[in-house]
Structure formats: C-alpha cells, structure tokens
Model the fold of this input.
Amino acid sequence: MPIDLQAVCEIIERHGYQKASLIGILQDIQEEMNHLPRKALVQVGKSLDLPLTHIYEVATFYKAFSLEPRGKHTIQVCLGTACHVRGGSRVLDYLENRLEVKPGETTKDLSFTLESVNCLGACALGPMMVIDKKYYGKINTNKIESILEKYRSK
Done:
C-alpha cells in the first residue's frame, strides 16, 4: 500500500515542525491513513529531528494508535459485567465468526476492525455494540447482519 509522504509533510507543516506536537501529528497521520505506517514515522523523525525509537515509544504507548492498517469501520463490543450477563460474549463470538477475525484484528478487505472493551457506559442498554461511535443497544445476533450491511454499503 503506497504511503503519501506529501500528506505527512503537510501534516507536520500544519503543526509548525514542533516536537511538542508529536502526538497531534501522529493523530492526524492516523486519521489520514487509518494507521501509522513506518515510512510516515520515519518522515516524522526526519522532519522533527527525533529518533525513530522515540516516535515508536509514543506510538506504541497509546492504545489509540495503530501500527497496522485498521478497518474503515471500527466495531466495539462491550464485555463489561452488565453486557456480559446479557449476552455480550455471544455478540462477540458471532462477529468473530462472521467477520473471521479476533478482537484487535482487521478483516482482510480492511472493512472492519473488531475490538472488545470493558465498558461503553450504557449498561442499561446492554449488550452494547458501537460502530464508528454509533451506539447499538440491546443488540443480539439477529440484528447484527442488517447493521453490518449498512456499513458495507458506505
């Protein structure tokens, strides 16, 4: 997958080549490219005069950053206590089988990244599933396929 280094340079320039803006730069790169490609990180290091090891330390410390390509859509399934007792595990199992990925993985076509989380803060609506910040409460396996179809067509 080719990396647009010009876009990386423009992001760095928008941040004024400031070392203190490293996290913001990485956030913008991830937003643009859906992950942090190695070539982009090398360019950041050169432009900010920072060692690549430092950039990797930051990129791997924060869970929000991904060094691997992520899906166009992110699915989060709540496994907190309230969601778990209401079937959150069944929802996750269904998605794992349907998408052929485990939590933390991305589908081969880069459509979806599946994640399990400990709480989504909507316990009364459990089990909960979130896709791209849209909450789906009282979810069950019968509802999942029609929801996934909406995102496949986007």
The longest strand covers residues 73-78. The longest helix spans residues 22-33.
